[in-house]
Amino acid sequence: MPIPFLTHVLLEGPPDWMPEAWTLVKWTSSIGALALTKWYSAGATNKAEKNLHGRVILMTGGTSGIGAVTTYELAKRGAQVVLLTHQSPSDPFLIEFVEDMRERTENQFIYAEQVDLSSLHSIRQFATRWVDNSPPRRLDAIILGAATMTPPGGARKETAEGIETTWMVNYLANFHLLGILSPAIRAQPFDRDVRIVVTTCSSYISSPPLDKALEKNTWSPKGAYARSKLALMVFACAYQKHLDAYKRPDQLPMNARVILADPGFTRTPGTMRWLSRGTIWGLFIYILMYPIWWLLLKSANMGAQSILFTVMDSSMGPGRNAGGKMVKECIQVDYARKDVCDEEVAKKLWESSDKLIEKAEKEAALKRAKAKKAEEMKQEEAREAEKVEEIDALLETIAKGRAKKAQKEKEKEKEKAKGNKDGKKSKSAKSK
Ligand SMILES: NC(=O)c1ccc[n+]([C@@H]2O[C@H](COP(=O)([O-])OP(=O)(O)OC[C@H]3O[C@@H](n4cnc5c(N)ncnc54)[C@H](OP(=O)(O)O)[C@@H]3O)[C@@H](O)[C@H]2O)c1
User: Which molecular function terms from Gene Ontology are attached (predicted)?
Assistant: First the structure.
């Protein structure tokens, strides 16, 4: 078919229905440019494979966007995935998500544990439970994928423990979680390839200074997000050194590796909230502009590729990787900022984070103790009020009983008096 057609075009010129050559060039180059843009923005595909049967993976943010795809891919390869979610395991949407995931991956080993990353207390409760397990639970990977973003123009918010929310969920929660889980990571046998994958974002490049994280007047949604990601990266680098410094009882080198993964700009519920500014009008505009987002942003599936690479590629394991590396588009890349692996910056951040957690946990514990006491007092008062009510009711019954008895006696006396009168009357009638 193409050969006769081309011969016809060459010998007799193009047919009437065919557009002019210039129009044809314009159309093909436009379509080619679009296809090239789409191909470029879709990013790289992970080629690494690994049998994950029997491997235990803890994961935050595994129920939405990039995280949900990652959960699916890991479970499909047989991993036992423990999802740390802020919903309770009895939440109907979460139950449906887990059941659907189990069905689609034919893997029953997908579980959900309630861990609210905006609460230090919730993180401590979960992590201490995990660490307290004896013998130590198997742990092959921890994927830290959860994050929050305040849409542009949004107000600064604080958690119930008084910490700025973006800083807490995106950075401090991970610092706290890994801090408590340290013994469980270090207790893994020497031949286990343990990976800690920290999800980051290129926004860290434009981060404002880390020491201004808790300032209220310089806060902005974009700055807070970028800063939380920079802090996370500085911590990730320092955490690898912290693990390496541990002397194992068997004298063998540390077998856990911390790896940073940047998924690239992706169409996810989080991105949609950011682009639509969290408003109905914004959502309407987002839907209208969807072809542009489709063209320029990755799908969640493509966003998950670098994370899957860090979990499965052999070059990321303890044998060939010193840890603290960053992966983007399924290849190792350098940091765009020198301070990511600066020991002085890390030391300051670590110390200030420790102090902040100690202060917030003390205050929260005090608040909880006060609330518990107030609740106990309330219950005691309710019990007292109940007792008083019972006594009042008893007294009322006694009083009623007495009144009834008195009434009955009165009536008896009346009848007696009446009987006496009648007796007298009949006696006098008889005597007459
Ligand atoms: N999307 C992008 O363009 C992009 C680019 C670069 C880097 N990243 C990074 O990639 C990761 C995934 O991004 P995404 O866009 O897929 O995220 P997403 O759709 O916004 O999902 C965020 C996840 O974090 C969880 N989460 C939020 N607050 C939580 C809390 N207090 N406690 C427990 N879980 C909480 C959410 O749980 P619920 O669903 O239950 O709320 C959800 O599973 C993030 O770390 C993000 O920073 C994303």
Answer: oxidoreductase activity
Provide the annotated active-site residues: 229
Is 263 near ligand 1, meaning CB less than 6 Å away?
Answer: yes
Q: Is the confidence at residue 429, as pLDDT, over 80?
A: no
Tell me, using a 6 A CB cutoff, whether residue 63 lines ligand 1. Answer: yes
Instruction: Check which CATH number belongs to the domain holding 310 and give it.
Output: 3.40.50.720
pLDDT per position as a tens digit, 102-145: 999 999 999 999 999 999 999 999 999 999 988 889 999 999 99
Distance from Cα 376 to the centre of ligand 1, integer Å: 38
Structure confidence by residue, pLDDT tens digits, 171-209? 999 999 999 999 999 999 999 999 999 999 999 999 998
CA Rg value for the chain: 36
Cβ distance 67 to 145 under 8 Å?
Answer: yes
Q: What is the pLDDT of residues 306-357, one digit of tens each?
A: 999 999 999 988 877 788 899 999 999 999 999 999 999 999 999 999 999 9
In a domain, 277, yes or no: no
Total domains present in the chain: 1
Q: Which domain holds residue 198?
A: 56-263+298-341
Is there a domain that residue 81 lies in?
yes
Ligand 1 atom closest to the Cα of residue 87 is: 40
Atom 18 in ligand 1: which residue has the minimum CA distance? 270
The reply to whether 234 falls in a domain is yes
Residue 170 alpha carbon, nearest atom of ligand 1: 45
Q: Is residue 247 part of a domain?
A: yes
| pLDDT (tens digit per residue) in 243-296 | 999 998 988 989 999 999 999 999 999 999 999 998 999 999 999 999 999 999
Q: Ligand 1 in contact with 207 (CB < 6 A)?
A: no
- CB contact at 8 A, 76 and 107: yes
CA 84 – CA 171 distance, rounded (Å):
16
Q: How far is CA 361 from the centre of its chain?
A: 20
Ligand 1 close to Cβ of residue 159 (< 6 A):
no
Distance CA 4, CA 43 (A): 39
